[in-house]
Design a protein that fits this description.
Length: 269
Amino acid sequence: MKFAFSTLATPEWTLEQAVERGRGMGYDGIELRLVDGSLIPPDSSAPAMRRVRKATVDAGFPVVAVDTSLRVTDPDSGRVGDEILAYIDMAAMWAAPVVRVFGGSLTDDPGGRRTALGRAAGVLSGVAASAAARGVTVAVETHDDFASSKVVAELLARVPERSIGAVWDSHHPHRVGETAEEVDANLGERLALAQVKDASRDSSEESGWKLVLLGRGEVPVRELVGLVAARGLDWVSVEWEKKWHPDIEPPEEALPQHLAVLREWEAEL
């Protein structure tokens, strides 16, 4: 198994610094959510894209995923589809196997829910052929109203193309009451990437949760590692959300700690 880290952990570092320091810590690759602390726009310039390739894949430090903020239930499905296609081209240039998208919002109204799922399925089906041709999987993360792997699986059942898959964020399914075994059963055959983070319940936080160093919270990350290893998943990525939570430990402390624990668990399992 190979381990990467998301650039969410390193908002104060340039891309080149993230690659150099991540390699020095012992990581095998990088998940691109930020470049130089900023989100990656779908209309990135050609020079900017060449710079990313030179700093990563050309330097022998692969990009495991290109992370977007796109939500496939968005009513503006034409724009969303076009932007996913742009990110697919970007990922192909960077030899990245995954483009991450979000599900977005679902209403409690059964009719509205069906409509939103149908719209999301249409967007994903519309980009599936391009993704397959470029060797990329467009993967829906367990996040927002799709935090439950059961909901992600419900969407994927509408989109049989294997260039459409899932990202397992370790925290969100646990937050909504799913076990690691349930997530594995729901998503295993369509899983493209696992993102790991740990957290503890904390009523002082707006979300009700506080991100903590790996192994110090209640999220079943160790179980996730065992399950995805058994499935032969290529990559597990550390998603330390320093960009969104400036008060948590700095990457110089958090990233080595996560990798050491992951390597220990991998050896035990």
